[in-house]
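Replying to the earlier thread about multi-chain prediction with a worked example.

Input:
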Amino acid sequence: MDRRNFLRSSVAATLAASTPAWADWEDVLYLPTKIDGDIDAVKLDGSDFTLKQAEVQELSNALKGKLWLPGSAEYDEARTLLEPSFDKRPAFVIQPSGPADVSSAVRFARDNDLLTAVKCGGHSASGKSSCNGGMQIDLSRMRGVYVDPIAKTARVEGGSLLGELDHEAMAHGLVTTAGTVSHTGVGGLTLGGGFGRLARRFGLSLDNVLEFDVVTADGELRRASLEHNPNLYWALRGGGGNFGVVTSLLFQLHPMQREMITGSIVFPFDQARQVLSYFGEFADAAPDDMHIGMFMGGGPDDSPAGVGMYFDYSGTDTAYIDQLTSEAEKVGTVLANTTSSMDYVAVQRSGDYNDIRSFSGYMKTGFVGDFDGALIDDLLDGFEPAPGRRTSLVTQQAGGAIGRVANDATAFAHREAKHNLLSFVSWKHGEDGEAHKDYIRGHWDSVKHHSQGFYSNDLYDQEGDDVSFAYRGNFRRLQKIKKEVDPTNLFRLNANIQSA
Ligand code: FAD
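Result:
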C-alpha cells in the first residue's frame, strides 16, 4: 500500500471507530470506496467482460466524489429513475463532484469500452439514464445555480434540477424557459429542447444557453459557445446527450414579474369536438406571452372522461383572459374553471405530482401544425378511455419565439410546429400494461400522419421509432459532428445519433 492509500485507510479506520458526528466529514475527506474484487460488466457492444479490481480501485481513488457498488443505499437511489419500471442495475455508479471526476469516469469508460449512462433528473422516457452492467454517471452531486443579476445570466451545474434554476433566478426578478415539472433535470431537458410555460416568449431552454462546458468522449473538458467549438455548440442545442457530459450551462435570463395568470377550463367529454376546434383557433391567435394547451382523458376508474384547455399567461392584459373565460362559457358547459393569479415559481411546481408523464406508462408523441378538423376527427376516432388505465391526450404549445429561429440554426429541427401532441396511457405499477400499449400504438397509427417528426426528449422505444425523425434535416450534420467528437459512440444511451 502506498503512503497516500495508507493515510486514507487510517483516516477511514479512525472515522469508523469515532462518534457519528464524524460521518458528516465524509464529503470533505477523500474517502474512496474500497473495491473488494473484480467486477462483471458490459461493454459498449453488449458483450460481458470483467473489470480488474485494481483498475476500479484506481478510478475510485482518483475521485473527489463517490463510486457506489451494488448493495449500498446510494447505489439504489442513483439507479432509480422516475419511471419505476426501469429497474436497471449498473455494474457501479459514479457520482462526480465536478468536471475533474467526470473526466476520470469518461476516460475509464473509453479505455475499457464500458457501457455508460448519464443521469441528471432521471426523467428519461426511455430509461436510458441508467443501464444494466455498465457505469452510470449520476450528476446529483453537481447541483448549483449561480445568478449574475448584472449580466442577467445564470451558471447552472450539469446535474441541477429545473426548480433550482427557477428559484434562484426569480429571487432577482429574472427567469428563463424551463419545463413544467420542477424535478426534471436541466441537463436532459435543455440538451433536447426545453418546452415550457415561457417558451413562446423567450424561446426553448436551449435557445437561452450562451455556453456549455462539456466533457467529451476523449475525457477533455471543452467550452462550446458561438466563440469556442461552434459546431459542438450547435449540436448540443438539440442533439441530446450524444456529445458528452455537460458539466455546466450558462443561461441568458430575462426580467419578469412574479405573478402570472394560470388555469384550466373543463368541459364534458361529449362536447370535445367544439372545444377542440375553439382551442385550435384561440391558440393560433395567441400572443407570445400566452401558452395554451388542450387535454382530454379518462380513467383510471369509471368517472366520466373530460376535455378542456389549460393555459399560462405571463402578460399583463387581464382583459385578454377575461375574454377567454367568457368565450369558453359559449363554447360548451364549463364544469370547472380554475383561473387564478399565482406566483411563477409556485406555478412551476404545480405539476410536480400530477403530470401524466410522472405515472408508470407508455406514450407516443409528435409535433403537429394546425389543430383543425381532420386532426380532431382522428384524435376522437378510436380514443377509448377504459377503467383499468388513465388515458390522456395533451398538447404543449410551440410557435412564438420558438418558431422565429431557423430550423438549421440549432440542432433542434421542429421550429414550424404549432403543438407537441402527447398521447399517453398509464396503469398501476406492477400490472401488465401490454394491452394498454397496444391500444396507444393502434390509436397513434391513425394520428401519426398529422405529425412531422417527434421530440427527441419524448422518445420512448427507440426500437419502434426512426430516430432521424427527431432530428430531421439536421441529422446528417449531427452524424458528422458525432463522428468527430464521439467516434466509438460512447454516449449511446440517448436518442442515439450513429455516425454516418
Ligand atoms: P435523465 O433521465 O436524467 O436524462 C435523460 C438523458 O439526458 C440521459 O439519458 C442523457 O442522455 C441526457 N443527459 C442528462 N443530463 C445530461 C448532462 N448533464 N450531460 C449530458 N447528457 C445528459 N420536456 C419539456 O421540454 N418540457 C416539459 O415541460 C417537460 N416536462 C416533463 C415532465 C415529466 C414528468 C417528464 C417525465 C418529462 C418531461 N419532459 C419535458 C421531457 C424531458 O425533457 C425529458 O424527459 C428529459 O430527458 C429529462 O431530463 P432529465 O435530466 O430529467 O432526465
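Residues 362 and 495 are 17 Å apart (CA to CA).

Feel free to reuse this layout for your own posts.
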